[in-house]
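User: tokens in, sequence out, please.
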């Protein structure tokens, strides 16, 4: 079984700023959220926690792990969507430039493409699933979106129900097909 938790709140989340690969720490509320998530998940059986190496995810994983005492493995493939030079910008002002299907070249502002991002994330999830362990993934909102879209066969321009900071999502057992485009 694989469960997913989005990291706790940061000041950038509160301000509506895109974090991307910036290493923004949890704020006081984010730490409280992580402790609440820890209580919600304390009776779950996890063999391992995989997480993004960014501190907001890693700190959330550490707090949740207090009831489990299992290995925490960081994986760069679980990092947030790389939004290039849009990091730190207000989401509402840059959303269409970064997340619209009409983007012809995200490389012009140093971002990864949607297909690169999805392939990176699903590569990690595929490897995690292959362990056949009970796993908790602690990562980012964009990673959740990529997983949710893949699991539900949703196109890249469709809206996904948001996952709040420290909210839990159970990832259904996935069937990876060699010919299916990640």
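Assistant: Sequence out:
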């Amino acid at each position: 079984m694989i469960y997913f938790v989005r990291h706790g709140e940061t000041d950038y989340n509160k301000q509506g700023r895109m974090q991307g690969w910036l290493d923004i720490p949890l704020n006081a509320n984010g730490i409280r959220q992580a402790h609440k998530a820890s209580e919600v998940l304390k009776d779950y059986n996890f063999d391992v926690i995989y997480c993004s190496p960014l501190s907001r995810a890693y700190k959330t994983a550490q707090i949740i792990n207090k009831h489990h005492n299992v290995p925490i493995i960081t994986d760069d493939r679980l990092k947030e969507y790389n939004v290039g030079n849009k990091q730190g910008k207000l989401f509402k002002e840059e959303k269409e430039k970064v997340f619209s299907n009409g983007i012809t070249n995200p490389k012009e502002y140093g971002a990864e493409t949607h297909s690169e991002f999805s392939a990176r994330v699903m590569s990690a999830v595929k490897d995690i699933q292959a362990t056949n362990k009970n796993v908790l993934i602690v990562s980012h909102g964009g990673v959740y979106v990529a997983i949710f879209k893949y699991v539900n066969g949703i196109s890249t321009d469709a809206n996904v129900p948001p996952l709040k900071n420290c909210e839990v999502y159970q990832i259904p057992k996935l069937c990876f097909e060699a010919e299916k485009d990640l």
